[in-house]
Structures are given as structure tokens and as C-alpha cells.
Design goal:
Helix content: 25-40%
Shape: elongated
Largest sheet: 6 strands, mixed
Structural class: alpha/beta
Strand order of the largest sheet: 2-3-1-4-5-6
Number of helices: 14
Radius of gyration: 29 Å
Length: 488
Amino acid sequence: MQTVCLVGKPNVGKSSLVNALLNEERVIVSNVAGTTRDAIDTKFTYNKEEYTLIDTAGLRKKGKIFEAVEKYSLLRSMKAIDRSDVCLLVLDATTGIVEHDKHIAGYALEAGKPVVIVVNKWDTIDEKDESMKEWKKDIKYNFQFMDYAKVVFLSAQTKKRIHTLMPEVLASYENSIKQVKTSIINDVIRNAFIETPPASFKGKKLKVYFAHQSGTKPPRFDIEVNSKGLVHFSYYRYLENKIRENIDFSGTPIVIQFKNKGEKEFEKEVGQVKAQGENIVPGKVVFRLYDTYGFPIELTVELAHEKGLNVDEEGFKEKFKAHQELSRTASAGQFKGGLSGNNEIETKYHTATHLLNAALKQVVGPDVHQKGSNITDERMRFDFSCDHKLSDEEKQKTEDLVNSWIQEGLDVRVEEMSKEDAIKSGAECMFIEKYPDIVTVYTIGDNVSKELCGGPHVKNTSELGHFKITKEEASSAGVRRIKAILEK
């Protein structure tokens, strides 16, 4: 059951509006401002569904709250806003918009509630069409921070246009619980980023890695970036506007949270350090955050200090030096890309990960990206971005597609080129910034798969055998994991 809260300054007609919706005189109405002193819950039925209306005391300016009972009324009104699903901000058409109306709207905004602006006493207005245009301009100007709010003009006393209210209330609520597929929100953010890249700050550029919806009421979106300190407020507003242009969120606020890539993993690692009674984050942990999640060491040091911890920077430098050496061998074709060994069967599994990545892009969607892999001589494990559990049909299609490419006997070609040329050619890669200037690109068939990779790989897909998915499960938020084997 949805709860609708009416808020506004005294004597704007909130109680009259409740009575109009109920079609009976349930709440005391008076021309004396402040007649309603408590938040009153009333149930009513609309289109065979039950709802609760909360008529609140008129919210005065804080300087005018001089009675203890009014302070109590204010607290009850604020609690009513917190427990509501939708807020109706009631305005008085006879007095126009005043500053206090904006303050009251701010309470609902801070609580993250959908808002419908109700211009009441519309029966007192002459030349309604022209006045409505002027009111809409005034609302747009005065409520710029809430430009998503729906607006209704009505008269609670005569019940004129009262029928226009509940459809807007329900639409606002539905938008507040709307869930968006990860692939769609990533498309929106990626296209917005391409259309208008953010300005660099002190030579540093913002990079966007991944976006997903993390909650509802109001809708919340987490966007992983290289450094959230590079996000200017104007770019936040730009992305919010782009989301609203592509997805209907009218009536409800939305929240965008920028998170440094690997922030959750950082919290997990720090938690383990504290649990062991230590106060130094080991160098190997710092490097893992950098290497796996692109977490800059400067950020790790800053966040660790905030939590009263130190960082083993020397240990990180040793690990980083070893990583650089590995990158140099990668350019010579010796990088093993998730292999625990380097035997024939693991080489086959390595090639199979490329086919699996390509198949998932076709079956699940083009926004699938590899998030990690691990290969032994017994099985392969492949992590990829995806917002849902794969259906049996999706798993079967993926498996069939991989096996069809194996049966076709596709050649695996390898060539070296500059990293810039590799990107221009459409080659896919995780953590492109970690590769050397000269990279190795492996292409399977007629561009079935094209990836930056150090190898090793088979020469032809016919060498792989039969591909079989043994398990599909969640790995982390927005990431799924497939385990698979190659049968003879």
C-alpha cells in the first residue's frame, strides 16, 4: 500500500484536498491557519487499490515556531515525509510562490521522495490558460532543483481537475521504483561520455569504467571511475540530464554515486588488516588493488590514512617493478593471461576464453566485458560484466556458439602493433593502460574475436575439443562467473 503525504505552508488547502480525494468531510477545515496540528493518516481506495493519505500540519518558518505544540507538529510532519512514498507539495494559487514553499520542497528532496506540485484553489483564477503558462514558468524558475516534479492544477473546494492528481502520483511512484538494465545504463553513460567528455583537471582526465543501478526509492546509480575527485558538479548534472533524457524518471529524484574503481575491494582488504590487529596495509595488497581494480596508490594511501592505517609503499614498489618486468616479457609473447601454468591444455583453455567472451557479447549483449579469468589444466574460470543470472537458454546458446566456432576450424592469427593502432583496429582489452607501447593482438577467424593478449594460443580452433559450461554464478555486484571445461 502506497502512502501519500501532503505538505505545504499553513492554509494552502491540504485538509480540503484530503476531503476532496475522500469525497467526504473527514478532516476539519478552517480558514484559520494552523487548524491541523498533527499528522493525520487516512485510508482511501482508488481504482480498487488502497492508499494512505497523511495530512500534515502546515510547516511554518522556523523563526515563527513559537509554541511547543507547533514544534511537535513540525517533527511529526517531518516523520510523515520520511514514511511516505510520494509527497504532494501544495501551493496556494491566490498567493503565488514564496520562499518558504521552496524550503518545504527541500525537505522532500533531502528525504529522496517523489514530488507532485499541486497548485490548489485554481477555481479563484481568471484566464486560466494564460495563468497556467505563467505558473509553469514560475515553478520552473523557483524549483530548478526539482525540475523533474510533476505539476497539477486543481481546486479542492470545487473538485475541478481533482481527477488529474492520482495518475501523476502513481506515475511518480512507479518511476521511483523503476529498475534499469545494466546494459542500458552503461549505454547511456558511455554515449554521454563520448558526446561531451569531461574537462581535465591538473592534467588528469576522468575515466568511466562501469555503471549499474544500486537501489530504488529513489533510483540510485553507481558509476565506477578512476578518481571521483575529478567529477565536477556540472558534469554530475550533465549525466543526470542525459539519464533523464533516455529514461523516464519524471516525478522522482535520482542519485548518482561516483565510486573509485575497487573501492569495495579496498574496504574489504582494510577490514581484514584491522581484523588481524595490524595497522599497515601490505604492499602485495596495495599492488593487487592497483593491478586488478586500477586503484591508484596515492588514493590507497589517502584512504588508509583516513582510517588510521599506514601503507607499505616499498612493498608496492617491489611488486610494481616485478609487474613491469612481466609486461616486457608480454611484448615478446610470453604473457600468460590468467594461466597458472603453460602446458598444452591450458593454452587451449586460454583460447577458449576468447571464444567465450565473443559468444557472450552476441548472446547476452555487446556490453559484456571480461572482468578476469583463471585457468588451470582442469578447467577455465571466466568473469564478465552482466546484471542478471544467465537463463538455461542463454547458457545453451553460448555453449553452442563456442562449439560452432571450434567445429569451423578457425585460424588464430597473431600480430604486433602499437597500442594506439590496436585500439583503433577494434581490439578489446582489460586495463589498457597497463600494457606496453607495443602489444600483441590475437584475432580468431574473420574477426570472431580480436583482443590484446600476450598468449599463448592454439593455431586453429579445431584443436580445442568440445566446450561445456559446468557452472554459472555471481562473482560480485554486476559481475557473473562461468566455469567451463574442454572435453575430448
